[in-house]
């Protein structure tokens, strides 16, 4: 489930709200006026604290293994 970042034009408050993809908006928790969605990030990428694997999103995809005889690592 994505976290949406909102910016309130009324009181300039910025907050994040966890919502479903179909959600259309959110109200500011401070002034309870409709806020504008600033951007959206996925919770698993943005926090990285809960699982400790946030850094791994930057790692390159490992080479395929199990394909062919030895994945190109040998000289037959
Ligand atoms: Zn507000």
TrEMBL record:
Alphabetical list of SMART domains matching this protein: CxxC_CXXC_SSSS
Domain Putative regulatory protein FmdB zinc ribbon, first and last residues per copy: 1-40
Top-level taxon of origin: Eukaryota
InterPro entries xref list: Regulatory_FmdB_Zinc_ribbon
NCBIfam families: CxxC_CxxC_SSSS
Name of this protein: Putative regulatory protein FmdB zinc ribbon domain-containing protein
Species, as recorded: Geodia barretti (Barrett's horny sponge)
């Amino acid at each position: 489930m994505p976290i949406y970042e909102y910016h309130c034009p009324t009181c300039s408050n910025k907050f994040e709200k966890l919502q479903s993809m179909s959600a259309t908006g959110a109200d500011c928790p401070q002034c309870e006026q409709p806020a504008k969605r600033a951007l959206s990030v996925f919770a698993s990428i943005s926090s990285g604290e809960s699982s400790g694997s946030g850094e791994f999103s930057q790692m390159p995809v490992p080479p395929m293994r199990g394909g062919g005889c030895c994945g190109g690592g040998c000289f037959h």
